[in-house]
Amino acid sequence: MITKKQLKIFEAFAKNPLVELTRKQVKKESKEKSNNALAMAIQQMKKEEVLLERKIGRTGLLALNLDSEAAMDYLALCNNQRLGRELQAAIRMIKGKIDLVTPFYSLVVFGSHASGESNKSSDIDLAVFIEGDERRKRIEAAIGSAK
Q: How high is the pLDDT of residue 24?
């Protein structure tokens, strides 16, 4: 189970999942003031195998364990938190329309909402990945009716 403090610290890795960070960089990225809270959160995430640490000299480099289901769950949680309630409601409505056509698809949010730079006038940038031209036409019609 992840705490709010751990999630805030984890967000330093969620911004760029492939990067390796030192503890000092994690502290700066997460804006965490307490060294103790940072150390405890990192220790817990290492114990859960969410983070991996490798040593170069005396410096420890922390990185996401991309093979860990818990790390993927934490990433999904961070991404969902980044999206506002209205956007989440719109995505749920669109997913409901797509589910009526096919259960096999991928829905990706990109643009200003994905990068956390959205404002009230930002539109929703979505990509829907599916198989088959016929399904594409049916999904376009379903999403068009969702407007």
A: 94
